[in-house]
Fold these 3 entries.
Entry 1:
Amino acid sequence: MVDHRKLGRELELFHADPLAGAGLPIWLPAGAAARHAVEEYVRELERRAGYQHVYSPPLGKRELFELSGHLGYFADDMFPVMRLSADDEFVLRPALCPHHALVYRARGRSYRELPLRIAELGGMYRSERSGVLGGLSRVRAISLNDAHNFCTFEQVGQEVAEILDLIRAAHSALGVRPAGFRLSLRGPGEKYLGDDEEWQRAEGLLRSALSGVSYVEAEGEAAFYGPKIDIQIRDAAGRESTLSTIQLDFDKPERFDLSYMDSDGSRRRPVMVHRSLIGSMERLFAYLIEVHAGAFPAWYAPEQVVVLPVGPDQADAAAEFTRNCVVAGLRARSVSDGSVGARIREAIQRKVPYVAVLGAREAAEGRISLRLRDGQRLDPMAAADALRLITGVVASRSAILR
Ligand SMILES: [Zn+2]
């Protein structure tokens, strides 16, 4: 595998500028196009699975993060509090959960609404030391694919099983190959909230959700509020990190006094399940760039089709095919400067999955010659068939180009 920082520069996916600050990369147009495709996909996947999306600000009042426990247990990883006046202090959030707890309690809730699944692809901040930062894998500004599923205790097992299915679906579409599953447990020390009984109950639920899956146990890797299932990936240097996660939390519902009206009219506390299907966009792309060597599956390739007229006489036919690709929802561009050989090489270096070549004969017959990124050359085909082939591969999110 190649280091994502090198490929990210060569393919102009992102830019690390010292003036912007360490750990604060900028997504360039190509990287942003790929990320946008992935974000659209995951929102759609979640929407079909019954999630509701919200927007909440990356900045919040100090009191919110005191109530959530973050300022007490997680302050070392947060940026310092910003003070506007003595009673007006703000923090850059280190997690989305406090805001989602406020979404839950924005009005009264009934048992009929559970599981209530609140999702957001939102910004959060961690004050990582500058020495550990690099490329997209360790950053200070994080865009997390996050959700909080509020459910009854009895629903937790089914909820976790459904989340595991969604994680598998997302991994398969993106080409993620997990390095392993991990059950992250409490370690020694005082940095954990809640009583022993709650921890054991949560641990038991996660263990049963993992039955049939091979996993390792890791003491001291739990969140401060509960145990979690972590799905690990490995980078080009062999370092392991967590991509997807499912965490059980009995504590925040208590702190935020969350409740629902049960069928018998009594007030009960929901359980909060924190989950991320694909982690942060930054860590995900650091991994995807390396695992695919920059050659993403066609559905999230920054440029999907490059159209090359052999000479000026084919310019109109090339422009028409490019337009048809764009109208069909593809990211396509026509390039006419330089020799055909040089243009093909350049497109393949940029890992564009489809190169459409139009010579005099193809243009006269309304045909296209497709060259695939992996070197395959397809026989000339009708322009409409070429378009159908590419849109079909993209729509099915296949990793195979034909
Ligand atoms: Zn959370």
Note: The longest strand covers residues 141-151.
Entry 2:
Amino acid sequence: MSKRLNRAKCKLCGTIIVSRHRHDLVSCKCGEIFVDGGNDYWRCGAKNFKNFLRFENRKWTSIFVPEVCEKRSLFKRIISWIESFTQRNEV
Ligand SMILES: [Zn+2]
């Protein structure tokens, strides 16, 4: 049984990164993408997921990460909340 690796490749700098255990946060050379959590939980992130590649079916492919999208929308909500707060203060 082959173990899947929590690894990714950055399209910008071409670095292949692997997270081998739970507290192993690895980012690529240019800081565009990162993986974390080893095989316990496949945490990953990117400034732009267009530059984030997963090794699937023997080739590097772009992925869609639902959890990350959720986190992003939460982040947007926080930003809009902060914006509304600062706007209120300016008035
Ligand atoms: Zn990079």
Note: Residues 10, 12-13, 15, 28-30, 32 surround zinc ion (CB under 6 Å).
Entry 3:
Amino acid sequence: MHLPCLICPPPTAISGLIKCNFILMLRIRKFGYKDAKEVSRIIKECYLKLKIGGHTKKGINSQIDWNSPENLVSRSKNIKYWVAVDNNEVVGICGYDDKKVHTLFVDLKKHKKGIGKKLLSKILNEAKKDGLITIKTWSTFYAESFYNSFGFVTKKKLYLPEGTKDVILIKMEKDLRQLTTVFNKNIIKK
Ligand SMILES: CC(C)(COP(=O)(O)OP(=O)(O)OC[C@H]1O[C@@H](n2cnc3c(N)ncnc32)[C@H](O)[C@@H]1OP(=O)(O)O)[C@@H](O)C(=O)NCCC(=O)NCCS
């Protein structure tokens, strides 16, 4: 139940309830090993509760295993991961290496509040600073249009593991020379 907020601009009435548009501070910082458990939980919940598309049950389980806390820690030696933190609580993750954007996930409870946009903007800006000219990603069906809105172009479908259809992802690519989106404000909609 949303309560009226005395600080915000006029609240919006939704289905008879009052929705509060209170604004919170969001911080993007580097991933640390202590974040792995919560990040793994966020990813697992997205796979189990969203209609992410392109995954069989076996494929979903393989992705959950791939994103166990231990595997995230191990991959963080090669992938530069960043996390979004709201009020000391980790609410999202994204990373990159010299080729790809990896593991963009936002806590299900916090979707559509601008967190994914802020994380991906940070990653693209960091990758550009590191000298990358283009960057790829292997998107879920669910996130394809989100990546399109950042200028990623759809290339082709990928069938993983090779020869099966357990996981179908979409190979996408962005030219970082066209990167103009910069989000400086640490503000999200609650
Ligand atoms: C994709 C994802 C990271 C987006 O995170 P989010 O915090 O909800 O996104 P934002 O609130 O920053 O959304 C920014 C904009 O994209 C839109 N958007 C958000 N999710 C979207 C989606 N799945 N498809 C299309 N548009 C989307 C929002 O409406 C918003 O539009 P606006 O700026 O016009 O208001 C999140 O939905 C997620 O975790 N998905 C599951 C995991 C996944 O599939 N990740 C990709 C792995 S490669």
Note: Confidence is low (pLDDT under 50) at residues 1-9, 11-21, 182-187.
